[in-house]
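SEQUENCE-TO-STRUCTURE ENTRY
===========================
What this section holds: a protein sequence and its matching fold, both as plain text.
Question of interest: how does this chain fold, as expressed in backbone structure tokens?
***
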Amino acid sequence: MPVLRTDEWLIQVGEKPIELCKKLIPYFKDVSSREIFSHLIRHGMYRSANGLKQVVKEMKTQLIWEDVEKIYNILMKRWNGPDIPIFIFPADWRNGRLQREFNSKGGLAYRDKLFLFLLPHHTKKEMEALITHEYNHVCRLRRMVKKEEDYTLLDVIVLEGLAETAVRKYVGQSYNAKWTTYYSEKQLAEFWKRYILPYQSIHVTHPLYNRLLYGLNFYPKMLGYAVGYDLVNRCLQKKDITFEKLMSLTSEKIAKLADRDVS
């Protein structure tokens, strides 16, 4: 399935995002366009139509839709991954956290679809890093028996760790997210023991879930992401352990393989 030409959607109804999200209803189950919009903006999609026309024009000039499709086809062959619809929308250029942690780009992955939030200034390598990260999520989700709605905090931090390790492996360490360098091994070991281990089984509805995953409030920033990346890298230091093997292991097995107590 090709990358959908959401640039045409944006030109038609982009300044009315609820109308735009009506086009996405067939790809979701039992949700309204307003609920879809609310969900997408939480993950980096543009909120305001102010300046949108110029952003879309520049994105089209940069051939972002065409470049994403080329990268996607390479990844699909590399990982023998599923052929899924990909939706590209402008990122929220006013989102401070998105700017600081992700250089104003973002994504949202499901087993059966993928959303990318980009801006005209993103280079091909930056796009490759984002697509590698997000499409790795899709492949991981496809290999797991557990339903997405049943994923725990541990499942999600491992998911993020695998995806960012894929970026380092296939795109290059210089394109890794900033949070991969925030903490020392000693700090990460302490974070696991103090913050993640007691709450590893909580789900997205738990009040601490987002705080621990993103390091909100008084928690170390990007806490869950950084710990997940550390778990995966500790596993890869083991003999006969490959990235491909880790992709099919449960989160609990990966934590144990990383020599982290899960009891």
Observations:
- DSSP finds 13 helices and three strands in the chain.
